[in-house]
Structure prediction request, 404 residues.
Amino acid sequence: MDHKSILHGLQGEPGASNPAGLQPPASGQSGPQAGGAGSGLLFLREEQMRLAQDLFFFAYRDLTASADAILDELDLGRAHHRALHFIGRRSGIAVSELLALLRITKQSLARVLGELIERGYVLQVQGPRDRRQRLLSLTDQGRALERRLFERQRERMVAAYRDAGGVAVEGFRRVMRGVMDEETRLLLEPRDPVATLRRAAP
Amino acid sequence: MDHKSILHGLQGEPGASNPAGLQPPASGQSGPQAGGAGSGLLFLREEQMRLAQDLFFFAYRDLTASADAILDELDLGRAHHRALHFIGRRSGIAVSELLALLRITKQSLARVLGELIERGYVLQVQGPRDRRQRLLSLTDQGRALERRLFERQRERMVAAYRDAGGVAVEGFRRVMRGVMDEETRLLLEPRDPVATLRRAAP
DNA sequence: CCATTATGTCAATGAAGCTGTCTTAATCAG
DNA sequence: CTGATTAAGACAGCTTCATTGACATAATGG
Prediction:
């Protein structure tokens, strides 16, 4: 019983034994919409989509797990790491902007942020233009910790990028962006990291 | 100033205003290791690695969130979805194999699995060869639910794949695999979905 | 027969999220 | 100026999903 039927109905496609169907349409075009209706688009088939789910789950899990040893040492969690990451990415970010990036509630962030501040990883200063705001940034200690955490993940990603090559990396980025909500895509890399989220930037 | 210093150079690189440095080395080769030491590898720089972290976080978050509406309706969580997914992927999987895929503890799985069984989404049958095993599969109802959940994510991924094109998809897969633990990579798509995890397959 | 394995179960705990309500201070529009 | 809105913080209580550790049962296999 070496059934090929990985899924229920879905007949084992001819190329299914090929690891992940690692030969894509090959119809060449680097541009979008490559491959005519009849010619290719094999990469759009159900099995390929399920494989993509697998890839997301495993890659994300393994990547995030790679920093856990350090976090455990310090009695911090992944939520702390995420906050450190985005505060580092956008120094001077306001609390509400951080909430919008993380898409969690104020109360969820409050605990995490409170600990990071109390333990000296994050600094809060009153906003100069809008004094209601508390602008967040990393202390030297916070920057050092974020870097330690980053290094673990960096090693992994550098290796993956190097092994895959520049063209693959570009493809990776295109797909990752495509999977996001449109709204998220806008927040991704604004010219001015912060201005996009603030409605008024005089 | 296109420093080869892949790491901590840090200062705002000239090309940083380009969205994600969307021009990769372009040194062409689809094969790994494209680009000699001096020629490219710009995609390995620190900012690119931090961007990759962003991409992972946002893409994974938005993808998984897309099924949440259905799950909420049924008072199920993401843990249930993951279990349904892998049981659907590997029909007849044993509990210990599922645990190895998910990398959670028996107790964590127990609750989720118990609910899925009790509510008629998952079926358990005693292993024919090894009667200690409880082999898991989806009921018709479970298959239907898994499909509903899958469809939401499929739409998103199909769009992303189509827009990005076949070459990009291939690149995406290469990078995603590269980020995983080696051990994970082995579990990803075994010829026989289940045999790899069982030590004895007579 | 006995050690190991596969599974299940009990109890307690922690991490990280949620809702809802309320306060304070600052901004902004009319 | 006043009143509505906004930014931030705080309190109480809850849910989901994971953890550890100990233990029980049944089946396997040397």
The beta strands of chain A are 93-94, 122-126, 134-138. The longest strand of chain A covers residues 122-126.
